[in-house]
Every structure is written in structure tokens, then in C-alpha cells.
Amino acid sequence: MYRDVLAIVLAGGKGTRLDPLTRDRAKPGVPFGGVYRIIDFTLSNCINSDIRRILVLTQYKATSLNRHIVQGWNFLCRELDEYIEVIPPQQRIAETWYKGTADAIYQNIYTIEKAAPRDTIILAGDHIYKMNYARMIEFHRDQDADVTVACQPAPLAAARDFGVMGVDDEGRITSFLEKPQDPPSMPGHPDLALASMGIYVFNTEVMYDLLFQDAALGESSRHDFGKDVIPRMVEEGMRVLAYPFRDENRKTSAYWRDVGTIDAYFHTSMDLVSVDPILNLYDRDWPIHTHQPEFPPPKFIHTEADRRGSAYNSVVCQGVIVSGGQVYGSILSPGVRIHSYSLVEDSILFDGVVVGRHARVRRAIVDKHVQIPPGFSIGWDREADLARGFTVTEDGVTVVSKDEDLERFA
Domain range for residue 188? Predict the structure, then answer.
């Protein structure tokens, strides 16, 4: 165990582009893959990397996220100095909410000092990937870096959403631009940019100095690591190093996803139902931990020749009952009920969704506890879905909000 390392997970993001899935929850708390939440991947990386002192900084609509962490991540032993602790905004230093990523850390310096870590690793709680942070920490220490930034190549169009860096032959970062409209390409790779993954390992004492300096700048700083702190470190000639992403997913290409939009979330989820998913959730050498609700096993009911409950190329979680309906290429979360003669295609149904008799759902995301009336259709008529107030994306994915009352349309 890395007893001299503290992990801080930034989990307060609104995730505006994921609305309406983030209407009642923070982005890291959005369900993924049936039983998981997005934050489970970052927390699992910490545990699998033998980092067991973790602070989760929350802010926006954190109730369900807090509940999930309490229910699913309470197995560490505080007596052995192992913990995952949720820290809400306390306004201990300033009477404001967090202004940026650096300000979020700055406002929690008191808590960090009590842990007295040699190094601090700062993580985003809203990305899906597998990574051994221990290797990055060892690299950071071996190179005697002030800060080490994890990075990987990204297509130029996608790089506009990330920090983009230039690196010399020794791996030292020579430039850092946060979300540039015209990202500079990598030498020899005109279609790619070197993108920051938002993962930083700091020498803690150096981090303290940087945060105090940034706070003293007041309104002239946005108090963000990518926008302010790291670019200033580069300009001042500090030892800022890039660490190439080393994937633990054990597939042909590296897997790292920012599911920041509904379409990105949908396509990343749909990979899980393919014959050979890119994201390997079945690797026991790198398990993804989560809260497993106490449901019975899934059940499929066949009673008549034309009333057969079945699911093909789908993820079917515990507590699901497929009672005479047909499911194709979909994710059924815990407690979902599919009634007779209904059809579900290429869709994601969150916990407790009930699909009524003869109802049809196609290319849709249906949030928790929605009751779909008998004969109701979702995802078959774009104009009808829009008229009902549903969100329909550019790729034609229909989203039904949590607890939506569909009986008023029936």
C-alpha cells in the first residue's frame, strides 16, 4: 500500500452535456454498464493500484453519489489508515463554491495536510478507463518531477475538449493549452494531438506553494490546473513531465473514454453488448468494484408459443424479469421488468424501469423507475418523442428522464 500517497478524486462536475441524465445527479454518479457508476472506474483503479487513502470532492447534486460510495465502497479499514472519504464543499477557506479544479484542492488543504502525503495524485471521477497509478507515481519519483501529467494521443477534433501539450525528446512538457480551438498536432502525426487525461501527480509540498500562489492571484486566475497552474509551471521552467498512458484493459488499442455527451455515453455503453467488447469487464486481474444491490438472479419467462421472454446480445443484471418480451442489443439494469409482447432494441434501461405489454423501445436511454405504459413507443418517431418533451440527440438517441410520468401521453 502507498501509505505516503493521497488520491483526490474530483467528482463535483455538473455534466451539462449529459442532461437529462445529470438533472438529478453529478456526472460521476451516472449509471454505466448496468450495475456500475462512472466513478467506479477511477476508484477501482486506485484500489487496484494499492492506493487506499482517497478523498472524493463533491459539489453538484451529490446525494446519489454519496449514497453509492457509502453502500459500495465501505470495505476499507480506517483503523489501518485506509479510507474513501467524501468531502462536500465546506467553505473553510473562502465563502464560495469551487471556482476550478485548483481551487477545489486549495479549499481542502487542511484535510490534505492531516494526511501528510509525500505525493498527491489528482484524478477526474468522470472517465472510463483502466490504469495502474502506481507506475505513474514511480515514474514521477524516479524523474524527480514537480508534477507529472498523464497523456495520450487524441484525434485533433476531439482534442479541442482537452488540454493539449507539447513535449520534448526527454518527455518534458514545453507547452500546455487547455481546450484550444486549433490544437497543435504531434510531430510526425498531423491528425493527432497529445492530450492531457486530467491525471496529475504532484510533489505535495510543491503543490501547496502553487495553490497559495494561484489563490493570491484572485480574479486574474481561473484557479484551474489545466488553464492556469500547469501552464504557469511550464512557463517558469519547473520540472513538468508527461507520462504516456499505459492501459490495463489488455486489448489491441488503449481504452480511455470521456462520456461527456449523450451520444458518447450511448455508443460507449453499446460497446458492452457487442460480441467482443473493447472494454473488458470480465478481467479478474483488474476488477471493477461497485455496489451490488441485493436482487435475485435474472429470470426469463416462456408460457406460450408466441409469449417467449428472451434477450440476445444483451447485458442482463440481477433482478431483471423478461416476461414474454423480446430484448436485442440492450442493457437491462437491476430490477427492470419486460412484460409480454414488448420489444426493446439497442437501448439502455436504468434501475426499476418497467416496459408494459406491447410497448416498443428503440435506441433509447430510459432513466430510473420510468413506467412505460402498454402499447407505448419510444424511439420510433423522432417528432413524437420531441413533442413529448424527450431529449433526442443528433445521432437519434431518445432520452427519457428519471421518474417521467408517461401515463399522461398514453
Answer: 5-273
